[in-house]
Amino acid sequence: MFRKTVDTLNEFIIERQADFPYAKGELSRLLTHIALAAKVVNREVNRAGLVDILGATGDVNVQGENVQKLDDFANAKFALALKGSSECCGIVTEESDEIIKFDTDMAKDGKYIVCIDPLDGSSNIDVNVSIGTIFSIYRRISKRGHIAQIEDFLQEGTKQVAAGYIIYGSSTMMVYTTGRGINGFTLDPSIGEFCLSHRNIQIPLNGYIISVNEGNYKQFCPGVRKYIDYCKEIDEETNRPYTARYIGSLVADFHRNLLKGGIFMYPPTKKHTQGKLRIVYEANPVAFLVEQAGGVAVDHDGRRILDIKPDDLHQRVPLYIGSRNMVETLLEFLEKNEE
Ligand code: AHG
Ligand code: MN
Ligand code: MN
User: In whole angstroms, what is the distance from residue 231 CA to residue 323 CA?
Assistant: First the structure.
């Protein structure tokens, strides 16, 4: 007798729709379109060393960083997929200063907006290190049938309807939440499907991995410096010293810590006085995911990331995220060492 052994992402999305009694399938269709664009980007990521897609375009994005060709490619693919989904009336992407409003009649009627970092960790493309895509979905505030408005994109993270990431690593995975736990799907390249591989992920309460760009150590505030020193001390009872792991792709660092337990930090530095990461399409989606997995995400004042109302599309925020007990210990150091 035929026994079904794998759950594909598409099946799972549809099954889960039943969790929301009034759902009409719009969110499901949107997620399916994101997954499809991810497969196209994945194909290109895997070929990056072979074709002339590698290397910088010479353009500089709104953050003043060099844009890699693969960033452009990923940006274009996701924008196209979202526009074509007919459920999304506009997007904000790391690669564009302003929001992109979709003006077809179908898109204008879309119920959702999407915030996206199409290629995260782009400095790692050229060196074969894991990169990712981060996305977040909100219900629009403005009226359906009209062009999207900036307010649709400046909502608190608590208003997210869904969020997730795709990691292009030793295997390709999509991890997402719609607010009922978080699940991971691994791409099986032989059938071209994302298959459920990590059901209901929970981040360990205690972690033993610390992820931070320690090159900036001298620029960190005393609280962060002392916490890093604490992590390096020898103490059998608390399993210290902890292990240091830093990839430089938020998606990859976050993914590892989510599965193994750990803390990721991007504190303020001289160059980035508000940290480097962007709240709308980097910090908020991972904060939603980590909370769904039982973890914590806060800023430099210990504020819950999801409660912050952004004023600007590309606003940055200091980020401390990961295992509950680790983030809580860090917060004690920050409080004791206030400048
Ligand atoms: P992006 O490639 O989308 O600009 O993001 C890069 C980010 C993030 O992925 C990573 O955590 C961080 O930059 C690394 O910054 P440093 O190189 O300053 O450590
Ligand atoms: Mn990024
Ligand atoms: Mn990016």
Answer: 14
Spacing, Cα 333 to ligand 3 middle (Å): 31
CATH of residue 332:
3.40.190.80
Given a cut of 70, whether residue 275 has pLDDT beyond it is yes
In angstroms, the CA 94 to CA 96 distance is 6
pTM of full prediction above 0.90: yes
User: Residue 88: is its pLDDT beyond 80?
Assistant: yes
Name the strand (E) or helix (H) holding 177: strand 172-177
Same domain, 246 and 117: no
Q: Is 122 in the pocket of ligand 1 (CB under 6 A)?
A: yes
* Residues of the domain holding 63: 9-198
Report CA-CA distances (Å) from 160 to 18, 40, 52, 143, 278.
19, 25, 37, 18, 16
84: Cβ below 6 Å to ligand 1?
no
